[in-house]
Amino acid sequence: MINKTVKNVEEACHDIQDGAKIMLGGFGLCGIPENSIAELVKKNVKNLTCISNNAGVDDFGLGLLLHQKQIKKMISSYVGENAEFERQLLSGELEVDLIPQGTLATRCMAAGYGMPAIYTPAGVGTEVAEGKETRNFNGKNYLLEYAFDADFAIVKAWKGDTAGNLIFRSTSRNFNPLMAMAGKITIAEVEELVEVGELNPDEIHTPGIYVQRIFQGEKYEKRIEQRTVRQAN
């Protein structure tokens, strides 16, 4: 069994260069690869294209890369929690491709499955359809959407083993398994790294065949984006 462990986040992200196209797992601030994002900020790589459900918040997640003006283009389905994102979008500093959330997920899946494109009804008859091929199946129109072509996929899991098998916890699963399949090089940071054989095969969400590098992360903040509590009676 191939050992895919690297020593730390620096080694995991060593070859991410200016202009890279990167998928980043997470939904809001849940399940984001905190260590790897911090390393990209530290490396100060520029002109990135980031494929992610959202752009974090102003002072956390991908918001840190936005503040450093390291992101050239965001491909996302939701971007409503980030004032700096809004500023850069309205000023023309940032390219943005807003995609229906299901389409975003399915384009990730298609890349992982080796499919060049998919047909979807989402966006037919709207601005999303402009310039795209439309085909009619059984009397219903569908848009042709291409699979993503990302240089790297960076995901965060709860547990992983040295062969790259991953287990995600609860809602932090979100986009992580789909993106783990889809990158040319997939980097996984995990809260707990164990030896092969210590994970229950029936509980593995992402097989190690999809993962090229894995390391144990540290000092996770796991921020809550919107905390809602019940008022005391």
Automatic annotation (TrEMBL):
<dbReference type="InterPro" id="IPR037171">
    <property type="entry name" value="NagB/RpiA_transferase-like"/>
</dbReference>
<protein>
    <submittedName>
        <fullName>3-oxoacid CoA-transferase subunit A</fullName>
    </submittedName>
</protein>
<dbReference type="InterPro" id="IPR004163">
    <property type="entry name" value="CoA_transf_BS"/>
</dbReference>
<dbReference type="GO" id="GO:0008410">
    <property type="term" value="F:CoA-transferase activity"/>
</dbReference>
<dbReference type="InterPro" id="IPR012792">
    <property type="entry name" value="3-oxoacid_CoA-transf_A"/>
</dbReference>
<dbReference type="Pfam" id="PF01144">
    <property type="entry name" value="CoA_trans"/>
</dbReference>
<comment type="similarity">
    <text>Belongs to the 3-oxoacid CoA-transferase subunit A family.</text>
</comment>
<dbReference type="InterPro" id="IPR004165">
    <property type="entry name" value="CoA_trans_fam_I"/>
</dbReference>
<keyword id="KW-0808">Transferase</keyword>
